[in-house]
Design brief:
mainly alpha, Leucine-rich Repeat Variant, Vac14, membrane, Vacuolar protein 14 C-terminal Fig4-binding domain-containing protein, ARM-type_fold, ARM-like
Length: 661
């Protein structure tokens, strides 16, 4: 190494380490001139020796004034190096960087100042040290000394200018470092990093969309920062990326981003959740297929958010949910995780929020419609929860659960049998004694609408005919009222009404099937026979009842029946009273009911109605004049009414025995 005195005058060496800044600055100016002389003489050996002197004796000294002198000396040397700058930068930059971490704030300040001057001179040559300087500067952005922070800010601006102009800057080597630093939570560091992401996104020759997976997760971290300004900056940057992705989707790795967004939407941070869902909603338009691997997870996130207390989250969740519905219906999710999806929906069926439970059921119905083969092996696991939903306090949830159960039953024959069996068990359970009376009509009408009233009623009656008589009686009374009044059963009523008159075997078999269950409720049986116009059999039933089975329960049923006879559904029956010679057993049946009833409102109603029967026709009947022969119900229908009457009597005996016990 050349002698120190031959490199620099002694006064320069002394003043470089002086505690007075002006003396150090003056020494640096003299040093700059010396460097220029060495450059002019092309004395590379002495240039290298001078740099080593500044590094080893000054910049690496344990004395702070020496370190400050070394920093200002190295910066001055770069100013004079000219064509040798790039050659000697590897010797100059590292010791300056080391001082960024100095314990004394003054040294850190001069290190920033020195690096600023070095970068200003080196420009393009400085790019090779970009990552190291950026990393050090990132830490200085959170420095506790305001002067150091300001110096770091100036250097930061210069570096951004250099990167913007440089063709040698490598984004590929920078992104891993940026991603690592984005995990830091210091607010100053976060502002520093967002600023760099914004700058890089604005450089025409740099397409940050290609590197978005490396930075997006870190930006989402900032959306939950306590500092409002940081949250706003991060949100603005993320939404700008979303706009860019919408404009040039071919440059976006949607598959990798979808995993990040799915994870980020599952958070307590409202801004994070809202922003992630906005991105996911855009994905349903730009690249819907990439959401398939996350389908189950998205359901578990979106469905609770539909009822979120934050109106903005609620709105975007509903929109996203609708769009994912559309994607699913389009067939884009051809191999979704059926088991995971149904498990997610099963969990959300227990959610406290009604909109969430309702939408969960709608998703199950959608899966049964558009992904039937995928969910078919897994559906048994969720069926019990569907039946529990039938007991939900929300009528909307009940109706939707029945829609789903009906859909399931229509797809698989064994599911239809299961539906009937489980439904009856649900009505019978002790923990839901009021379900039949409170919701029975709603449930049965909905299932008639979904499954078809004839199929549903005939199968239900088949199950009931061998069940507990008391339960059957309650069930039949509810079913009978629906049969007589509900618009959903209009076709079934028409078929029963014409069964005997038209001698239709299928209709008569249907009547017989219902009768086997209806026989446990006398009032329901009579009304069914009235509906089918089996008046002769009706009169026989009434005679049997009057002989042995009149009690309060029967009187109540007859009371309700009389009121029903005044409803529009029995208008045809009332018109038939104008022709008692054609329907003598109808008249006999009504008078039989009148005789059984005690004098009451129902008795007065029926008496008033019978008082409208033409007296001349009555007189002719009493005299045995029958211009038209009444219909022979048994021969016309092929039904064995004698055996039916016997079964009715057996049912009444069971009822009577039960009441005694």
């Amino acid at each position: 190494m050349a002698e120190t005195s031959t490199l620099l005058p002694l006064n320069v060496l002394r003043n470089l380490s002086d505690k007075v800044y002006e003396k150090r600055k003056a020494a640096a100016l003299e040093l700059e001139q010396v460097v220029k002389q060495f450059v002019q003489a092309e004395d590379v050996r002495r240039l290298e020796a001078l740099i080593r002197l500044l590094v080893e004796k000054y910049a690496s000294s344990p004395h702070s004034n020496y370190r400050k002198g070394g920093l200002i000396g190295l910066a001055a040397a770069v100013v004079g190096l000219s064509v040798y700058t790039d050659v000697l930068l590897p010797e100059i930059v590292p010791p300056v960087l080391k001082c960024f971490d100095d314990q004394e704030s003054g040294v850190r300040y001069y290190a920033c100042e020195a690096m600023y001057n070095i970068a200003k001179i080196a420009r393009e040559g400085f790019i090779s040290f970009f990552n190291e300087v950026f990393d050090a500067l990132c830490m200085l952005s959170a420095d506790t000394d305001s002067k150091v922070q300001n110096a770091a800010l100036l250097l930061d601006r210069l570096m951004k200018d250099i990167v913007t102009e440089s063709a040698a800057f490598s984004v590929e080597t920078f992104i891993p470092l940026l991603r690592e630093r984005l995990a830091l939570q210091n607010p100053y560091v976060r502002q520093f990093l967002v600023g760099w992401i914004t700058v890089l996104d604005g450089v025409p020759d740099i397409d940050m969309l290609e590197y978005l997976p490396g930075v997006l997760d870190g930006l989402f971290n900032m959306l939950s920062d306590p500092n409002n300004e940081i949250r706003q900056q991060a949100e603005l940057s993320i939404l700008e990326f979303l706009d860019d992705a919408s404009t040039t989707p071919e440059k976006v790795d949607f598959r990798q981003l979808s995993g990040i967004l799915a994870a980020r939407s599952n958070t307590e941070s409202e801004l994070t959740k809202l922003t992630a869902m906005k991105w996911l909603d855009k994905f349903t338009e730009l690249a819907p297929g990439v959401l398939e691997p996350h389908f189950a997870k998205l359901l578990s996130i979106i469905l609770p958010s539909i009822a979120h207390t934050n109106g903005a989250i609620q709105e975007v969740s509903q929109t996203l949910n609708q769009h994912i519905h559309e994607v699913h219906q389009s067939g884009a999710f051809g191999s979704l995780d059926a088991k995971g999806s149904l498990e997610a929906l099963q969990t959300q069926l227990k959610n406290a929020a009604e909109p969430t439970r309702l939408e969960s059921l709608q998703w199950i119905r959608s899966l049964l419609t558009y992904s039937r083969e995928l969910v078919k092996p897994e559906i048994d696991a969720i069926t019990p929860d569907l039946f529990l939903a039938v007991k939900d306090h929300s009528e909307h949830v009940v109706l939707e659960s029945l829609e789903v159960l009906g859909k399931l039953a229509s797809l698989e024959s064994h599911c239809f049998q299961t539906l009937i069996s489980e439904l009856l068990q649900l009505f019978k359970k002790e923990q839901s004694p009021n379900l039949l009376s409170n919701r029975g009509e709603l449930i049965l009408r909905k299932l008639c609408s979904v499954l078809g009233s004839e199929k549903f009623y005939s199968e239900l009656a088949r199950y009931l005919q061998n069940d507990d008589p008391e339960f059957v009686s309650m069930m039949v009374q509810v079913m009978n009222l629906i049969l007589l009044t509900a618009p959903e059963l209009q076709d079934l009523r028409g078929k029963l009404k014409r069964s005997i008159i038209n001698s239709d075997k299928e209709s008569c078999n249907l009547l017989h099937q219902l009768y086997n269950a209806w026989r446990f409720s006398p009032g329901a049986t009579i009304s069914l026979c009235f509906l089918a116009q089996a008046y002769s059999h009706t009169s026989s039933i009434i005679a049997v009842l009057a002989d042995s089975f009149v009690d309060v329960d029967l009187l109540v049923q007859i009371h309700k029946l009389v009121l029903l006879l005044e409803s529009p559904i029995f208008a045809y029956l009332r018109l038939q009273l104008l022709e008692p010679h054609r329907y003598p057993h109808l008249l006999k049946s009504l008078y039989g009911l009148l005789m059984i009833l005690p004098q009451s409102k129902a008795w007065e109603t029926l008496m008033s109605r019978l008082g409208s029967v033409p007296t001349l026709e009555m007189l002719q009947m009493s005299q045995g004049t029958k211009p038209v022969k009444p219909l022979d119900e048994g021969n016309a229908s092929g039904l064995n009414f004698d055996k039916m009457l016997e079964s009715f009597v057996d049912a009444q005996r069971l009822n009577a025995s039960r009441k005694k016990d």
